[in-house]
Design a protein that fits this description.
97 residues, mainly alpha
Length: 97
């Protein structure tokens, strides 16, 4: 695969992501401005993700392998926080009833 084809794939992927993101983002932003409770819920929901990303300020990344390793670790940490913990809670609640 040539550099041009890699760049094209990255660019077209970003274009697709931007099209998807901006298809719903303005609606959510308007709703956040109108509804302060929703705004606070969004803040609470994204705080763990932002906090986990701030961990990168405290590590030395001298190679692409280290960047990849820390990136994968953060993805797994966020998956655990957003999917794993709620799943464990739901399973625990179901077992009690």
């Amino acid at each position: 695969m040539t550099l041009c084809s890699v760049l094209f794939l990255l660019y077209s992927g970003m274009t697709t992501f931007n099209d998807f993101y901006y298809s719903f983002s303005p609606i959510i932003a308007d709703y956040e401005r109108e509804n302060h409770v929703f705004k606070e819920m969004v803040k609470i929901a994204i705080t763990p993700m932002i906090s986990s990303l701030s961990l990168l300020n405290y590590v030395d990344m001298d190679s692409e392998v280290e960047v990849l390793g820390y990136g994968i670790s953060l993805i797994l940490l966020n998956v655990g926080m957003y999917l794993g913990i709620p799943a464990i809670v739901v399973i625990g609640i179901k077992r009690k009833f």
